[in-house]
């Protein structure tokens, strides 16, 4: 199935297959219908045996493709996170979605989803009315254009703007048509407390990144001071989505795999291995194209995308490091089964980015739900390391010896300690620390202020006075420009962050590899690459005749010893039905044990997609299976 | 190092190695010392690159050894769990530890740890006093005996008994010697809410098991109805420990790997593959031995342990299924590096077991903290499936066709629907459901009561009246014994649960494989099996001469393509220091690139434990590395 023949895809049929074969299921499903259930299990999913094996294989290949191939340092950090950490990172204040309450129904609706859903419905109605269907409403043509334009850049609207749209276009809850209250921000983090005293607030992490940032200094030391380097973390993250729908695509607990690539901002433009990938062509949709109202993808080599297009001279991708990762992400997605015709890289619009990002490209996969963000590749600049270092007073930076020392002009603040101690007593140390932490730009401004007013205000940690700042007069504080010889250079690295939503990738790939035999829509097939297929080999004795059992068992044990996941199906259903079941499970190979096997030891090997069969000796068949599983043959 | 030479083990030296090589670290360490930090990060640890790789390899081998070898169905269930589920499972009411508050210090102490610590300190003081050290206190000899006896069965005491001990022996907070308040239960689950309305309470799971139980019916269907079968889940669980200490051994967020093996209670005594392991000898410490005050381990073949000891006829291990798993656990632990002299299987005492368990054997590893429970192997009987099925009204059981139908006497309750409907209106359906759910024993009792009093009380879901039970008089309800032909047999399976604490295993194994070169205590070595070693091969160019770089790079790339984790150390430190660093990281193999390599392509391969070196061609060296990594050679 290619991107243009989407109409042949039936989501109900597809979902029925996934449910029937237990790829995943709603968590706590039997509680949903239990008497007096007060819970909310929406957005929570369990993976069944094939889903779980597929996920493990996708993660395993991620480790090979990124951690081993790029020599990344993997960490495993906790999901429980002290509130202070996420306050500093900005998540407590800014990691929120806007929601509207419908007082009549007592329902909470995510504001952007509400606007999107209602405007799309009106446009669909309009299209049907234009096509002559009487019971639909035609829109004024300027209104229809407005709606199109709003939808094209919906991610660019904040809460107040969404509120204005809701007011202006009288957007109501589709369930009951009730008016909704104006959008209010809802923080998406799950909150709890740790320890018996209940005094210590925590959140469940909404991303794995913060744990990696806080370990920066230890990672640098582990890498013996060598830059650039990358860390990675694979683990569950948690977002208390307002009203999750769309199955695995919007869930409240999900597996992420995140890389934090730390670079010297002075040399971040280049990447050591960029030349290896410069010719790879990527399907790109940049910011300018979107702002001009278009969504068409251009195929461009990453070399041109970074170093300037031959035609226009434009460089939509900022630097080699970002470009290198986009290619590596692309190759990974194709390897695990994504359809190249349904992959694109879309650059974020300005208002769409997370609070910490200065640029972001998403790898999006086309599904029956539209284009889905599966991998975000953000430039977080030095934001996180800077805020944590500032808050904790612990360094999160790199210090390198200069080959040639340099003389620099620098602002320097000095405190008159003889006055400071007696005047501020216990607070004196905090004030010293606050002054020492001032950066060059702030010092320059304060020097100016001090010269003009003979008094300055410096922010501090909370003092005995209850204040979080202190006034320092010229008798206690002086600021002047001094010459300094710097033998070392200190810098806070920039961070490029490729962040993978494993569940979204898994679901989208399943849509991409799903098709059905031409003769029968009910005979679904999942053409998963053998690399990630949950089970590699089905072993099927032709009948349940006792003579076939020992051979079957021996064969299964032999494959297990080779660590090749296999499944024996000795049930009495026809061999065709057993193969059909395994086509739905995505099992690429089938081995049949029959009466010839008893006679001469030969086996039949069947390939899932072509249904081609070959007959050979057990050793030859095992040899072929190993070659296929290890990717030496196709 | 064997169990008897523990004195040569220096924990500070060992911990310094783990910290220096970033196996793991306190999470959010830089926040711990940040100004005004209000959090509590105790019991939270991040794994650094070698710890994380070791963990991934331990988990990978777990998947091979259990999931693939035993054909177990792996699930991935959510950690977020609706409160209703854990109320039903008994965790909300019973999953608690007892704690004492010291009002003077504002500290919370775990009651059993308090008693243990204080009594052990007094006994140590006693021993020193007996040995003639003047500043220690001698105890009365009966008191010393009492203390010994209390400590031997401490796990057998509940909260009130611990309170009595604290009172009787005037046990106080060692920090400040303040009196503590009586023990109160503290539930160990982290609590939060889900969804925007804050109305839906959730807990973070304290074990992965519940998600597996709730999926029982889907698993049975996936296995096409065939029993017995097992499921497994690998994932993080959460316990809000009162006052965690002992590093990785008592943490608040931890990785578990749990198997739930479901068996027909009528045939659970036997296991299909038991004969394969019957002769394996296990170090056992059974309940009777412990209750007689001894802790000596006996080596016993699992065949004897299950089917009766030749000498005594006793069978300390209840059945083949349990015995089979004990052996498989034992083999797994040895494979990943546990020292057989420091492994034992200890049976739980009656009061020590979790509320759901009817028998339990722990695999314990001996560490510098004493014997540590690393794997629990509990018989949960049909407890969990029964309570969830009863609460939800959804079946969690197996129905098999009888080969020969049987006639059975059964109690049957009939309701007079013509009276029921008008009298109870909306509640009628709930009453019908409640009566239909009554089991045979209850029905027999109610039949008797109905005959005597002409009225019975039946528990129900909450009714419109606000009551959770209803009175049914003889005019509306009759109960009699009827003969029934049963063509099928319905049963709720028993569950055997091997439950692995991955962090505890990882830490204990690290202690087991740690030693130092005879000549130098500072030269630590971690003799991790190659199977689980974080990095398999160190590649070390002899010097940073430019001619060695391309060969080094090519070699690293070749190993990466074979998916063999390797690390290049081109630093200018001596080759000896680079090997010493990798001995501490547990890297089993080292390849040196030198000027002979430039000349003739030969490389040197070094083995970590013996420090033996061989020289051969690149192809031969790669061949040897592959054989070793795949376990074909040692």
Can you offer a commentary on this structure?
The structure is a homodimer of 634-residue chains. Chain A is α+β, with helices and mostly antiparallel strands and 634 residues long. Chain A has four domains: 1-94 and 189-397 and 496-523, Bira Bifunctional Protein, Domain 2 (BirA Bifunctional Protein, domain 2); 96-187, Herpes Virus-1 (2-Layer Sandwich); 398-491, 2-Layer Sandwich (Signal recognition particle alu RNA binding heterodimer, srp9/1), CATH 3.30.720.200; 535-629, Rossmann fold (3-Layer(aba) Sandwich), CATH 3.40.50. Chain A contains 23 helices and 28 strands. In chain A, the strands form eight sheets. A nine-stranded mixed beta sheet of chain A has the order 3-10-11-21-16-15-14-12-13. In chain A, strand 5 and strand 6 (107-110) form a beta hairpin. In chain A, helix 6 (111-130) runs antiparallel to helix 7. The longest helix of chain A has 20 residues, at 49-68. The two termini of chain A are 21 Å apart. At the A-B interface, helix 2, strand 2, helix 3, strand 3 and strand 4 of A face helix 2, strand 2, helix 3, strand 3 and strand 4 of B. Chains A, B: It is found in: Cytoplasm. Chains A, B: It comes from Ophiostoma piceae (strain UAMH 11346). Chains A, B: Homodimer.
């Amino acid at each position: 199935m290619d991107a243009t023949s989407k109409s042949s895809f039936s989501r109900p049929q597809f979902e029925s297959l996934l449910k029937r074969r237990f790829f995943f299921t709603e968590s706590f499903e039997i509680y949903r219908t239990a008497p007096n259930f007060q819970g909310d299990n929406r957005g929570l999913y369990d993976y069944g045996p094939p889903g779980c094996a597929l996920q493990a294989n996708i993660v395993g290949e991620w480790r090979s493709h990124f951690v081993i191939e790029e020599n990344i340092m993997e960490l495993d950090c906790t999901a429980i996170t002290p509130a202070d950490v996420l306050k500093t990172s900005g998540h407590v204040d800014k990691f929120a979605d806007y929601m509207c309450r419908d007082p009549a129904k007592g329902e909470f609706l995510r504001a952007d989803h509400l606007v999107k859903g209602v405007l799309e419905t009106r446009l669909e109605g309009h299209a049907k009315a234009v096509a002559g269907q009487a019971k639909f409403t035609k829109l004024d043509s300027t209104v229809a254009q407005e709606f199109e334009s709003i939808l094209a850049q919906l991610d660019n609207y904040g809460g107040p703007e969404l509120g204005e749209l809701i007011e202006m276009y009288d957007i109501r809850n589709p369930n009951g048509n009730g008016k909704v209250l104006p959008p209010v921000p809802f923080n998406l983090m799950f909150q709890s407390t740790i320890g018996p005293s209940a005094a210590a607030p925590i959140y469940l992490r909404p991303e794995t990144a913060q744990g990696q940032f806080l370990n920066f200094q230890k990672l640098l030391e582990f890498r013996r001071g060598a830059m650039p380097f990358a860390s990675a973390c694979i683990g569950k993250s948690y977002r208390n989505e307002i009203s999750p729908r769309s199955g695995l695509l919007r869930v409240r607990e999900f597996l992420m795999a995140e890389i934090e690539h730390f670079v010297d901002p002075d040399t971040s433009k280049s990447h050591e291995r960029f030349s290896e990938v410069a010719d790879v062509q990527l399907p790109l949709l940049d910011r300018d194209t979107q702002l001009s109202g278009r969504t068409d993808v251009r195929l461009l080599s990453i070399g041109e995308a970074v170093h300037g297009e031959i035609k226009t001279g434009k460089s939509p991708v900022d630097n080699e490091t970002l470009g290198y990762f986009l290619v590596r992400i692309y190759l990974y997605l194709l390897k695990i089964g994504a359809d190249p015709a349904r992959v694109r890289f879309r650059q974020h619009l300005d208002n769409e980015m997370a609070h910490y990002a200065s640029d972001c490209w998403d790898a999006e996969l086309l599904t029956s739900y539209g284009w889905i963000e599966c991998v975000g590749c953000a430039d977080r600049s030095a934001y996180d390391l800077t805020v944590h270092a500032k808050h904790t007073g612990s360094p999160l930076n790199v210090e390198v010896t200069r080959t040639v020392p340099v003389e620099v002009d620098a602002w320097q603040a000095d405190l008159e300690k003889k006055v400071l101690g007696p005047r501020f007593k216990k607070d004196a140390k905090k004030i010293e620390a606050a002054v020492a932490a001032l950066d060059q730009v702030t010092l320059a401004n304060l020097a100016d202020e001090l010269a003009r007013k003979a008094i300055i205000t410096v922010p501090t940690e909370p003092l005995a006075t209850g204040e979080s700042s202190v006034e320092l007069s010229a008798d206690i504080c002086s600021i002047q420009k001094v010459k300094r010889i710097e033998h070392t250079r200190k810098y806070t690295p920039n961070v490029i962050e490729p962040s993978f939503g494993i569940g979204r990738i898994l679901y989208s790939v399943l849509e991409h590899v799903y098709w059905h035999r031409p003769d029968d829509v009910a005979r679904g097939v999942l053409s998963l690459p053998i690399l990630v297929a949950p089970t590699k080999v089905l072993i099927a004795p032709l009948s349940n005749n006792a003579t076939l059992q020992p051979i079957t068992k021996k064969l299964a044990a032999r494959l297990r010893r080779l660590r090749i996941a296999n499944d024996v199906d000795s049930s009495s259903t026809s061999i065709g039905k057993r193969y059909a079941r395994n086509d739905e499970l995505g099992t690429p190979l089938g081995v049949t044990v029959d009466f010839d096997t008893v006679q001469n030891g030969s086996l039949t090997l069947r390939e899932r997609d072509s249904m081609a069969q070959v007959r050979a000796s057990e050793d030859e068949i095992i040899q072929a299976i190993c070659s296929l599983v290890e990717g030496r043959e196709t």
